[in-house]
């Protein structure tokens, strides 16, 4: 069972990788403190245990639409470059 990291957050998406489920969450409403606060939690698909948790503030110029893929221990985010073109940003 997937558990949100905090009260008042919504499930944004689930990405699958062999043996791992990458779950993304964000706050339901905006506030000066919570606006843009997101999580990606890596869950072991067999045991349900959290392997890793990442909390970040989404900057749409750097991360665009947010997490689009998790594979081979690499996070891929869809982003918008300074010239307005779409780009992929990878994080290890």
Percent in helix: under 10%
**What is the CA-atom radius of gyration, in angstroms?**
14 Å
Shape category: flat
Structural class, by secondary structure, is mainly beta
Order of helices and strands: EEEEHEEE
**Average residue-wise pLDDT:** 81
Distance between the termini: 26 Å
**Helix segment tally:** 1
- Order of strands across the widest beta sheet? 1-2-3-4
How many runs of DSSP E, i.e. beta strands?
A: 7
- Our count of domains comes out at 1
Major β-sheet annotation = 4 strands, antiparallel
> Could you list the spans in which at least 5 consecutive residues all have pLDDT below 50?
none
- Percent in strands: over 45%
Q: What would you say this structure looks like, in words?
A:
By secondary structure, the chain is mostly beta strands. It has one domain. Helices cover 4% and strands 57% of the residues. Strands 1-2-3-4 form a four-stranded antiparallel β-sheet, with no helix packed on it. A hairpin with a 5-residue loop joins strand 6 and strand 7.
List keywords for this structure.
about 5% helix; four-stranded antiparallel sheet; about 90 residues; 1 helix; mainly beta; about 55% strand
